[in-house]
């Protein structure tokens, strides 16, 4: 008896299986990479926003949700008299940015202005107000909305005291779009391969079924010597 092969019984071709594995790997890479493309967000500060201190702190520390690039990190501290009270260089340690302050600043409202560059290349700016000497929290120029720690404000105007902002780097998400395009191409190729593979298997199975439907016929021929007929070989 002839056994009819079923479509797909032989499994997928190695090329198709490889394409499927590559697609899964690309999708996993895209899923894992997406969170890293988010901008840095300020999650804490010392002094905290709106704090009222008895004296000028020795330094200001800002903490973000991701590691901060050391290049272009800036902090400026503007006092109630409009003067700048930061001194020395900005320090970066992992997700923290800090700078020392001049001692014995006047009582009143202070504003910490910051600008960093996210890992995706975009600048992140914002302000954190605090007061010295029990004065109500305020700013030499009112802080804009969304300046609380955790907001990671993107401002069109440069915060005071930070100087000229750095040029915006090309978006780090460009490679993600490239990965999406590559994944789409691979998906199309894998789909085409599956269709062609199934078509070939279907045609082969159809031909085998047709051959099996016709039973071999034993031909009977006359034996010229005996006048009888016998089965042909």
Could you walk me through the main structural features you see in this protein, from its secondary elements to its overall organization?
With 233 residues, this protein is an alpha+beta fold. The protein is built from 2 helices and 10 strands. It has helices at 14-33, 174-213, and strands spanning 42-46, 52-53, 59-64, 74-78, 86-93, 96-101, 108-117, 123-132, 220-222, 229-231. The strands form 3 sheets. Strands 1-3-6-5 form a 4-stranded antiparallel β-sheet, with no helix packed on it. It is rod-shaped and about 95 Å long. Residues 1-38 form the signal peptide.
Which sheet architecture does the biggest sheet show?
A: 4 strands, antiparallel
First-residue to last-residue Cα separation: 18 Å
Class by SSE composition? alpha+beta
Low-confidence stretches: 135-157, 168-172
Count of alpha/pi helices: 2
Domain CopC: 39-132
GO molecular function: copper ion binding
Protein name: CopC domain-containing protein
Signal peptide: 1-38
Summary of the model, kept short:
Residues 39-132 form the CopC domain. The protein is built from two helices and ten strands, in the order αββββββββαββ.
Fold blueprint:
Elements: H1 14-33, E1 42-46, E2 52-53, E3 59-64, E4 74-78, E5 86-93, E6 96-101, E7 108-117, E8 123-132, H2 174-213, E9 220-222, E10 229-231
Parallel strand pairs: 2-8
Antiparallel strand pairs: 1-3, 3-6, 4-7, 5-6, 7-8, 9-10
Helix pairs in contact: 1-2
List keywords for this structure.
233 residues, four-stranded antiparallel β-sheet, single chain, four-stranded mixed β-sheet, 2 helices, alpha+beta
